[in-house]
Amino acid sequence: MINQTILKEFTLVGFSVYQHAQTFLFVAFLCLYLVTLTGNIAIISLTWVDRCLHTPMYLFLSALSFSETCYTLTIIPKMLADLLTKNRSISVIGCGMQMYFFLGLGGAHTIILTLMGYDRFLAICNPLRYPLLMTNMLCGQLVASAWAAGFIISVTETALIFRGSFCGPNLVKHFFCHMRAVVRLSCLDSELTEFTVTVISVSGLMGTFLLIILTYVFILSTVLRIPSAEGKQKAFSTCASHLTVVFVHFGFASIVYLKPEPEASGGDDTVIAVPYTVITPFLSPLIFSLRNKDMKNAFRKVLGKTSSLNK
């Protein structure tokens, strides 16, 4: 029998390997996070206030912004706090909760992105029947289903990883409780569990991405049949922001989940996760708001009402 220390808490190594850059990283990540929060809250607020935006497309966008706000809340505040302190510990229960919510919210976010592609497919390929096929009520039901599916997958993966005890050392080589970093500390067969949860995540990631690509194949074939150049440009403009966010989101996510095993140092895992967890949420609201005329018009209306009230 080999003596094993059963862990009650983990230490998140995170960016502690970059001691000289702690202050710079804190300021940089804090600025990115504040912009992310501001952008997402602005999208949610404008969609709620402006009745012109009470359509399925903007309701999906609002739901996407809400899920993004929630899933960044699960990891970034803790990461920022750890950059300012030497005590980077987190309890095993706290780690499990963080993983559960991050995976659930991230999964819901990915499924909502897929539903937004389906919404554009209906709007462009079936414009006359679109108001009947995609109602606000159906939009709400699809978003609720996305959240349910995300958390079903999350509870499955989290339960697989936390079904046994964890053995020393207690160092999680990441800035949050990432699946692959935590599962390696399990006293059970970590390789089998890691393979299983990776297959689940990659299957979900690739499945949703292929569905989005399929919808855009149909969209493209429909747009190419539009006789006028102006009609083609208008149809493509409604998809440009979504397609940009899709490639950013799935591109960075694939790097995290499809890359080879990290080196023993574990530093690479931390750096590679930054684009997916920090940069993607930062870019998403900027892309959707800056390239959207309706959203900019709604913002101007709010500013106009605010200035008139001040007068």
Automatic annotation (TrEMBL):
GO terms for cellular component: plasma membrane. The keyword Membrane applies. The chain crosses the membrane at residues 24-46, 58-77, 97-118, 130-153, 199-223, 235-258, 270-290. PROSITE patterns: G_PROTEIN_RECEP_F1_2 (PS50262). InterPro entries: GPCR_Rhodpsn (IPR000276), GPCR_Rhodpsn_7TM (IPR017452), Olfact_rcpt (IPR000725). GO terms for molecular function: G protein-coupled receptor activity; olfactory receptor activity. It comes from the Eukaryota. It is found in: Cell membrane. Pfam families: 7tm_4. Keywords: Cell membrane, G-protein coupled receptor, Membrane, Olfaction, Receptor, Sensory transduction, Transducer, Transmembrane, Transmembrane helix. It is a multi-pass membrane protein. Residues 39-288 form the G-protein coupled receptors family 1 profile domain. PANTHER family: OLFACTORY RECEPTOR (PTHR26453). Putative odorant or sperm cell receptor. This is G-protein coupled receptors family 1 profile domain-containing protein.
